[in-house]
Write a structure and sequence with these properties.
The complex is a heterodimer of chains A (237) and B (230). With 237 residues, chain A is an all-alpha fold. The termini of chain A are far apart. In chain A, helix 2 packs across helix 5, helix 2 packs across helix 9 and helix 5 crosses helix 7. Helices cover 80% and strands 0% of the residues of chain B. Chain B is flat and about 70 Å long. The chains are: A mainly alpha (237), B mainly alpha (230). At the A-B interface, helix 3, helix 4, helix 7, helix 8 and helix 9 of A face helix 3, helix 4, helix 9, helix 10 and helix 11 of B.
């Protein structure tokens, strides 16, 4: 037990600092991926809600594919697909050898695309939950489409969206561990490195699990606070 | 650009991983469901000594990545080889196959128990009271009234969980099991054709998921004959 404490200590010869730093990378990766996913999700939800056949079909296909295919496969597609294209371009300019895509950016993009598929469903459901009278009231007030979205619809939509978004966020945080397979040194990869070099896999993976759990718990309470704030002044049904 | 010949070549290779994918998914979903039911029922009694450890188990398995769970069980417990050999469990924890099944089952058991717990609590109180007015024992009430209604209620949420598990089996490739995703990764690094391999492997997963969703939808419709579909 003292061994474990020594291995995970923040001081010299301890891995605590490296693990905390890696947890920071995991957090940054998850937050940026989630935000990119919010953008993709909003666009896809707009597509699903639009009356146009093509946007609606594209958005539906995006949702079906990226919610139905293993995330690992999507990550391989982006990383290898992107790197192969990059290598070809490199060859054209006279560079030999494999050019890898930057792993952090690839991770953010992968999480963005996957979580966007889940977030689209959340936004679509929340949009439909807003009272139709609100849209009519906006029109009566002479608000433009953008104004009514920004001032009236989105603030109300967020009330319904936040619980679902909280779930997607938890999914994103756990998914970020998969980015370790393309070599990004986030919490999972750092624990693998530590486990390998100290020959103490149990201690390292347990520490990783504890850090993931901690991040999930703390951020979960942020979502609950946001929910309470979004519903302030409203009577819960 | 689209090379049909290449697809014809890789699809059989990818399909050779399908039995393993289906085994991992099938076994862990079945074991996980049994575990989920057990955990959900154990929490009905409100015995603190029982409820508290279950809540902790569920929170831990829902709050940490599946990949960490697989690694903790496969590599982490491997560290305790002498102890595991002494208690005769080494054969289980030595095999990546069983480690993946254990991790997947515990994971889906934790998520599933929350779905079933909610569904059991959703059974109207009056029905349980009516059953006891009929003189049914607690076991009879559970078997004849509560569970049939709760399980039917749980089908939509549980089918989401099953899809997540099918996708989750792909992580077994990281502990050397060559199921569909593992084979796909091998093919990508051999052929450098990520898009084609993704499309083919993705189609396999989408087919599995579509089949499961259709089957469960049909089951739900069959179990709710009174509900007229619009």
């Amino acid at each position: 037990m003292t061994d474990a404490l020594h291995i995970l200590s923040l001081g010299k010869g301890g891995w605590g600092g490296a693990l905390l730093l890696a947890a920071g990378v995991t957090f940054a990766l998850s937050v940026l991926g989630f935000l990119l996913g919010a953008l993709f999700g909003a666009i896809a939800a707009g597509g699903r809600l639009s009356t146009g056949a093509i946007p609606s079909w594209v958005a539906k296909a995006h949702g079906t594919v990226f919610r139905g295919v293993p995330d690992l496969l999507t990550i391989y597609l982006l990383y290898y697909g992107g790197s192969i294209t990059l290598t070809e371009i490199g060859k054209f300019f006279g560079s030999a050898g494999f050019v890898g895509l930057p792993t952090f950016a690839t991770g953010v993009l992968a999480i963005g695309i996957i979580s966007g598929a889940y977030q689209a469903e959340v936004y679509r459901g929340a949009y439909l939950a807003v009272d139709p009278g609100q849209f009519e009231a906006c029109k009566a007030l002479g608000l433009s489409r953008l104004q009514s979205l920004r001032l009236v619809i989105i603030p109300q939509l967020m009330r319904h969206a936040l619980p679902g978004l909280g779930n997607v966020w938890q999914l994103v945080l756990k998914d970020s561990a998969l980015i370790s397979v393309i070599g990004l040194v986030e919490l999972m990869r750092q624990s693998q490195i530590g486990a390998g070099s100290m020959r103490e896999p149990f201690v390292f993976y347990l520490a990783a699990a504890a850090l993931y759990f901690l991040i999930a718990a703390v951020t979960g309470s942020v979502f609950r606070y946001g929910e309470a704030r979004a519903w302030r002044g409203m009577v819960h049904a | 650009m689209i090379d049909l010949h290449f697809f014809v070549e890789i699809i059989p290779t990818l399909l050779s991983g399908l039995p393993l994918t289906l085994q991992l998914a099938g076994l862990s979903i079945a074991i996980g469901f049994a575990l989920a039911l057990l955990l959900a029922l154990a929490q009905q009694g409100n015995h603190r000594m029982l409820v508290w450890p279950i809540r902790a188990f569920v929170a831990v398995f829902r709050g940490t990545p599946l990949l960490v769970q697989i690694f903790l069980i496969y590599y982490g417990l491997g560290q305790f080889r002498p102890t595991l050999q002494a208690v005769g469990l080494w054969w289980l924890f030595r095999e990546p196959y069983w480690c993946a099944i254990i991790a997947l089952s515990l994971n889906t058991g934790a998520y599933g128990s929350e779905i079933l717990r909610g569904a059991i609590q959703g059974v109207p109180r009056g029905l349980v009271e009516a059953a006891s007015a009929f003189g049914m024992t607690r076991i009879q009430t559970l078997r004849l009234v509560v569970l049939p209604l709760a399980l039917r209620q749980a089908i939509p949420s549980y089918s989401n969980e099953i899809i997540l598990m099918v996708k989750g089996t792909s992580l077994a490739s990281i502990v050397t099991l060559m199921e569909v995703t593992g084979i796909a990764q091998g093919l990508i690094s051999q052929t450098y054709r990520a898009v084609e391999v993704f499309v083919a492997a993705g189609a396999i997963y989408l087919t599995i998921n579509f089949t499961i969703i259709s089957a469960l939808n049909a089951l739900e419709t069959w179990l709710t004959p009174y509900r007229v579909r619009a």
